[in-house]
């Protein structure tokens, strides 16, 4: 095991890397001190994975041109990927490559978001086409969107669909205006609340129906609307006091709660708990 009995700590008090870890580092083609640091940072999780799991992960993914240093970075970011057996890892990668993404960009995504490897191959084959339809069937756009909001691979599809529809239909924004934002990681409630607040202030106006959906408007950018704290949004984007927005947000939530009660059969996609 990587961490059990005398292996629970990768570096002792004298900062000497144990021999078994030095040997593993050589097999993985990574630096011993870096491997030791990763193991020390995640002892509770990594102690359950035998060396064979490390070797399988490195051996298989290096076939897809992942660098050993990148694989170690991925484990440091998400140790759970060591729990994937070779068969599931193989099916997962085959599913991802099935969509003919740019190899380099796909690797970059997986390195930055290792949770992509935790998906079942059937989930990938089912969800990716749906997501592509919302970004104009552009592979690179989708990879960008996932890098900002990996939750779109795992969240309830109806909830994800509701956010897409609101951005495209209510806010009248095109894919190029949202794929490089974390809007899909925000709640639908926050998105709708801030958008509605700006409309009431006259600061967010409908788009000319004849205009290109990707054309920049005079409305505040999606980044400014959603990638700010409540206080920053109120003062710097809406130009009001934080207290004014807090009062509106409270009233707006009450209104939505009442609407949801009237239509209790529908899931509460506006809730902060989604």
- For the terminal residues, how far apart are their CA atoms? 38 Å
The stretches of 5 or more residues where confidence is low (pLDDT under 50) are 3-9
Q: How much beta, percentage-wise?
A: under 5%
Q: What is the structural class?
A: mainly alpha
Query: Which shape, going by the Cα principal axes?
Result: elongated
Count of discrete alpha- or pi-helical segments spanning 4 or more residues: 14
- Under CATH, the homologous superfamily of the largest domain reads Transcription termination factor 3, mitochondrial
CATH class of the largest domain: Mainly Alpha
- Domain tally: 2
CATH topology of the largest domain: Transcription termination factor 3, mitochondrial
Helix residue percentage: 55-70%
CATH architecture of the largest domain: Alpha Horseshoe
Order of helices and strands: HHHHHHHHHHHHHH
Spatial extent as radius of gyration = 23 Å
Major pleated sheet: none
Mean pLDDT reading: 90
What is the tally of beta strands? 0
GO molecular function: nucleic acid binding
Family: Belongs to the mTERF family.
Protein name: mTERF domain-containing protein 2
Keywords: Transit peptide
């Amino acid at each position: 095991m990587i961490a059990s009995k005398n292996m629970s700590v990768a570096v002792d008090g004298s900062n000497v890397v144990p021999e078994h870890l030095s040997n593993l580092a050589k097999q993985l083609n990574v630096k011993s001190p870096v491997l030791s640091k990763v193991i020390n940072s995640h002892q509770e999780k990594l102690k359950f994975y035998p060396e064979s799991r490390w070797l399988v992960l490195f051996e298989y993914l290096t076939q897809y041109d992942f660098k050993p240093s990148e694989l170690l970075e991925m484990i440091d970011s998400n140790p759970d990927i060591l729990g994937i057996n070779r068969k599931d890892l193989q099916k997962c990668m085959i599913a991802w490559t099935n969509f003919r993404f740019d190899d380099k960009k796909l690797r970059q995504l997986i390195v930055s978001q290792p949770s992509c490897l935790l998906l079942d191959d059937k989930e990938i084959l089912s969800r990716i086409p749906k997501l592509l339809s919302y970004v104009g069937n552009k592979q690179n756009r989708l990879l960008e969107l996932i890098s900002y909001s990996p939750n779109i691979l795992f969240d309830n599809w109806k909830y994800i669909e509701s956010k897409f529809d609101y951005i495209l239909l209510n806010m009248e924004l095109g894919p190029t205006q949202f794929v490089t934002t974390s809007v899909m990681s925000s709640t639908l409630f926050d998105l709708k609340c801030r958008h509605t607040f700006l409309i009431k202030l006259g600061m967010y106006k409908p788009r000319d129906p004849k205009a290109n959906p990707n054309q920049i408007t005079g409305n505040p950018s999606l980044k400014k609307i959603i990638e700010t704290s409540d206080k920053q949004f109120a003062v710097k984007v809406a130009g009001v006091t934080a207290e004014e927005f807090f009062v509106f947000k409270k009233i707006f939530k009450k209104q939505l709660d009442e609407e949801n009660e009237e239509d209790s059969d529908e899931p509460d996609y506006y809730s902060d708990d989604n």
